[in-house]
Amino acid sequence: MKNGLAALLIASSLWGYGNGVIYWAPHISHGGEHSHSKHGGHGMGETTMLHAMNLEGNSTVTLIKPDLSKEDLNLTDTALTLPKASIGGYYALVLTHRTDNQVDSAIRYLSQQGRPSKISPTKLTALPKTDLEIVPDPLHREHDHYTASKSYHFVLRLHNHALANTTIFLETRDTPVQTVTTDTDGKFTVTLPNDFKNVQIGRSENKPSEFLLTTQYREGDTLYKTALTMPYSLNPNDYWQSQKYGAGAVFIGFLGGLFLYRRSKKTGVPRG
Question: How confident is the model at residue 37 (pLDDT cuts 50, 70, 90)?
């Protein structure tokens, strides 16, 4: 409890996106916009570039593939260009930075195109990747998106064991820090904020944003900190699509079909 309260006080007094944690962020183009793929930044083979933010000193970077094989990668001035994917499906990009009394980690999942692996992504999420880890429970389906105004489930693990009663911080660049506490099974749920600006009609006309989940936990003399970043997309139902109106249209269509059916019964062609 003390650990969670201390982290909350620090976050509330020094709020700024990603302050004090190492995390993965999309490459920033010269125009100042995030560089994303047509799949909302989930991955685009050899052209996917990411940056390790707030990183100082040496670290290890590992790419875990859908078949759970691993490849060590090298950062160049905190920047990383992913190799071309040979297997299609979800990859986990894991950065670990260790000092004498602290272990920082950053994780990002990417959906890559390639030869189908036919391996469930639940095996990837179940695989221990770092000491303290925020795990999607489950990952959304491939070619889907994390979406604003929707709720998603996660689990927090320390040394591959559920970590209960720990504060999780949810951040986006346009919404102040929100907090949630893990339950007795280490599980928690967050609802992504609808904080898109200058919205255009058509989902593809609006660039995805980023959400950041962070937490920390002290065990003995060692402080563990971890971050999970993923892109999330605008929810059309918040703007130009309405489930209410959509349901009304379906109901009107049903009544119209029923009317035509009854009319055809009355004026039907007599049997020969």
Answer: very low
